[in-house]
Design a protein that fits this description.
Structural class: mainly alpha
Main location: membrane
Number of domains: 1
Family: Belongs to the binding-protein-dependent transport system permease family. LivHM subfamily.
Number of helices: 12
Oligomer: single chain
Number of strands: 2
Shape: globular
Subcellular location: Cell membrane
Pfam families: BPD_transp_2
Keywords: Amino-acid transport, ATP-binding, Cell membrane, Membrane, Nucleotide-binding, Transmembrane, Transmembrane helix, Transport
Distance between the termini: 37 Å
Strand content: under 5%
Largest sheet: 2 strands, antiparallel
């Protein structure tokens, strides 16, 4: 149960992260390398509430999405929008997000030093396992992460299919030029997508330390799996991030654990290799991801 529970929790969190990454890619065409660091911002906010105010880290699920979303808006407005206006290529925009990720890594490292000094607690690495709860023997991290997935899907469905703004957002994702010609404020939808994606990352970050040790560089480590999940699911379909998240999350955890019985526990540190191998296989067989295949399109009819 312990291994399966951890795998499901990880898959839930990875699916939410991949969902956000896919959303920003669809709306702006930019692979965001800083997406993982947005999550770590949420983690450090939760840690601050935990050691600074003595609050349960789960309470960070309220401010973490807002904080992450604001960082997403700032990155888009201060970095990507000016470059897009100047006609920057996708490669340049991608490198810009990589530069932002490095900057955020440095800022998180500096912040961890400040927190360590202020509260006399080591903030360079931390976990929340001792602060977790259980429901009928089921760890709170699995319960909370599962509820977050369900709540996110319901909210997205209502937003995209039950509101006028959602209709405009879908139109902007499908054909930005046509949407703009019809009077839709495409720039507004892009800004919202960056807020929403970073908000989802911040929310995930508040739960992530309940599952694994978190450090300032965790974002750079987890982004490998996030990209793999988005690519496997299909970068041109929002549901692809969710599907890819569960495929990569469960495979990375369960396959690595299974191999550890044969090759020893040392193999556990190479879990990302599983993600990359699956990603390469999907790219060779299904270049547009699972949601880009004819079989998937027929199922969705």
């Amino acid at each position: 149960m312990g291994v399966l529970e951890g795998a499901l929790t990880y898959a839930n969190l990875l699916a939410l992260l991949a969902l956000g990454l896919t959303l920003t890619y669809i709306t702006t065409g930019v692979p965001n390398f800083a997406h993982g660091s947005f999550a770590v911002i949420g983690s450090y906010l939760a840690y601050t509430l935990y050691v600074g105010l003595g609050l349960n880290p789960y309470l960070a699920l309220i401010p973490a999405p807002i904080t992450g979303g604001l960082f997403g808006i700032a990155v888009y407005l201060l970095t990507l929008k000016p470059l897009i206006r100047k006609g920057a290529s996708v490669d340049m925009l991608m490198m810009a997000t990589l530069a932002v990720d490095i900057i955020l890594y440095g800022l998180l490292g500096a912040y961890s030093d400040v927190i360590s000094s202020a509260f006399k607690r080591n903030a360079s690495k931390f976990v929340f396992t001792n602060a977790d709860f259980a429901v009928s023997g089921i760890p709170g991290r699995l319960v909370v992460s599962s509820l977050l997935v369900v709540a996110t899907l319901v909210a997205l469905y209502i937003l995209l299919y039950r509101t006028k703004f959602g209709t405009a957002l879908r139109a902007s994702m499908e054909n930005p030029a046509l949407a703009e010609a019809m009077g839709i404020d495409v720039e507004r939808t892009r800004l919202f997508s960056w807020f929403l994606a970073a908000a989802l990352a911040g929310m995930v970050g508040a739960v992530l330390p309940f599952l694994q040790e978190t450090v300032p560089g965790t974002g750079g480590f987890i982004i490998v799996s996030v990209f793999a999940a988005s690519i496997v699911g299909g970068l041109k379909n929002i549901s692809g991030g969710l599907i890819g998240g569960y495929i990569i999350g469960l495979s990375e955890s369960l396959v690595t654990f299974g191999l550890s019985d044969v090759l020893g526990t040392g193999i556990l540190v190479y879990g990302k290799v599983v993600s990359l191998m699956i990603m390469i296989a999907v790219l060779l067989l299904m270049p547009e991801g699972i949601t880009g295949t004819k079989v998937w399109r027929r199922l969705m009819r």
